[in-house]
Amino acid sequence: MESTKTVSDNGFNPVWNETVKRFTVTCPDLALVFFRVLDSGVLVAEYALPMRCMQTGYRMIGLRDMHGRRIGPTSLFVHISIDKTT
Length: 86
Fold this sequence. Notes:
Blueprint (H helix, E strand, L loop, with lengths): L31 E8 L2 E9 L6 E8 L5 E11 L6
Antiparallel strand pairs: 1-2, 3-4
């Protein structure tokens, strides 16, 4: 499991500016990528995206609460890069 560093005192517009390390997916039809936002170790919001649905480029990831309900206009703006070499 890969994660980014903690951003302190910037809850309204946090910027991480870091790259999560590469990882290998052996069965993309079954793999899920989780985007999670935690506050002091407590889950605030998340979204699970099937690997087979991911597309390269800049994407908006809409966040949901722990009951699966959409949380207003909250989202993560991410850049996804996929290397499909075997």
